[in-house]
């Protein structure tokens, strides 16, 4: 399924670098999400955007900065990261925004981030 | 807060046999949705099956079926006639039905190995 596309697939960055992760959904969905997947830990929700408005910031450090310019695109801007931020970052989208329907999330392939 | 628990870190099954993956959850909500996702080595999270809490009938999708026990807060996944392509990490996930938009809470995952 290519409904949700993430780039780059792999990223290695130093602690002083600034980089951005990109996500694009081609499904006409209204909501987009960033999740962090670390080894031996459940997926952690980072941010939720519904109709381009951020509706949840799940206590994420300010070195992660999301941006949602329109309902099809989502970015995660990274700066001064720490080695413990190394993880797989997954983007997802869903049909509904607030509340109803129980629509499933559709995920991209993720960006494997390594912070050196 | 909702929690999702998968008590089996790893499971294995012979090809063509049946395997059941366990999931329990904790919630005070009466309206919610439950999902099973599969994550193969390609890293993309793929929706396997979806269950609405208000429906008593267990969801089925081809070789995949669930045993949903609402009172016990249990949601197990049964894979029949297992195939080599079923090998993956399986995640159980919970989504509230109220104003919790699309936020999914995931379990820790179960690694499924399929032996030829």
What is this entry, summarized?
The complex is a heterodimer of chains A (116) and B (116). Chain A is mainly beta. Chain A is 0% helix and 55% strand.
Outline the structure in words.
- The complex is a heterodimer of chains A (116) and B (116).
- With 116 residues, chain A is mainly β.
- Chain A has strands at residues 4-7, 10-13, 18-25, 31-37, 44-50, 53-57, 64-70, 73-79, 87-94, 106-107, 111-115.
- In chain A, the strands form two sheets. In chain A, strands 2, 4, 5, 6, 9, 10 and 11 form a seven-stranded mixed β-sheet that branches.
- Chain A is globular and about 40 Å long.
- The mean pLDDT of chain A is 89.
- Chain B is mostly beta strands and 116 residues long.
- Helices cover 0% and strands 52% of the residues of chain B.
- In chain B, a hairpin with an 8-residue loop joins β10 (88-96) and β11.
- The termini of chain B are far apart.
- In chain B, strands 2, 5, 6, 10, 11 and 12 form a six-stranded mixed β-sheet that branches.
- Chain B has strands at 3-5, 10-14, 19-21, 24-26, 32-39, 46-52, 60-61, 64-69, 74-79, 88-96, 105-106, 110-115.
- At the A-B interface, β5, β9 and β10 of A face β5, β6 and β11 of B.
User: How many helical stretches of chain A?
Assistant: 0
Reading the helices and strands of chain B in chain order gives EEEEEEEEEEEE
Instruction: Give unreliable regions of chain B as ranges.
Output: none
The number of E-state strands of chain A comes to: 11
**What is the chain-wise order of helices and strands of chain A?**
EEEEEEEEEEE
Our count of helices of chain B gives 0
Percent range of helical residues of chain A: under 10%
Report the structural category of chain B: mainly beta
What about the largest sheet of chain A?
7 strands, mixed
Low-confidence runs of chain A: none
Structural class of chain A: mainly beta
Strand content of chain A: over 45%
What is the CA-based Rg of chain B, rounded?
A: 14 Å
N-to-C CA distance of chain B = 41 Å
Mean pLDDT of chain B: 92
Rg over CA atoms of chain A: 13 Å
* Whole-number mean pLDDT of chain A: 89
């Amino acid at each position: 399924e290519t409904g949700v596309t993430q780039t780059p697939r792999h990223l290695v960055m130093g602690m002083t670098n600034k980089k951005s992760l990109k996500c694009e959904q081609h499904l006409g969905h209204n909501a987009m999400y960033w999740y962090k997947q670390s080894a031996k830990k459940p997926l952690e929700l980072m941010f939720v955007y519904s109709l381009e408005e951020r509706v949840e910031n799940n206590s994420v450090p300010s070195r992660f900065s999301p941006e949602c310019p329109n309902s099809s695109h989502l970015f995660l801007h990274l700066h001064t990261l720490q080695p413990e931020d190394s993880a797989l970052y997954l983007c997802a989208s869903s049909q509904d925004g607030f509340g109803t329907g129980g629509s499933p999330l559709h995920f991209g392939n993720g960006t494997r981030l390594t912070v050196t | 807060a909702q929690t999702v628990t998968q008590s089996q870190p790893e499971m294995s099954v012979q090809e063509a046999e049946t395997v059941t993956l366990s999931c329990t959850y904790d919630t005070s909500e009466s309206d919610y949705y439950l999902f099973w996702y599969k994550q193969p080595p390609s890293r993309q999270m793929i929706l396997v099956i979806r269950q609405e809490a208000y429906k008593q009938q267990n969801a089925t999708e081809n070789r995949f079926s669930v045993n949903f026990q609402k009172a016990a807060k249990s949601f197990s996944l049964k894979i029949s006639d297992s195939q080599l392509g079923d090998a993956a990490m399986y995640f159980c996930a919970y989504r509230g039905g109220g104003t919790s938009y699309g936020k999914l809470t995931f379990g820790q995952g179960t690694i499924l190995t399929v032996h030829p």
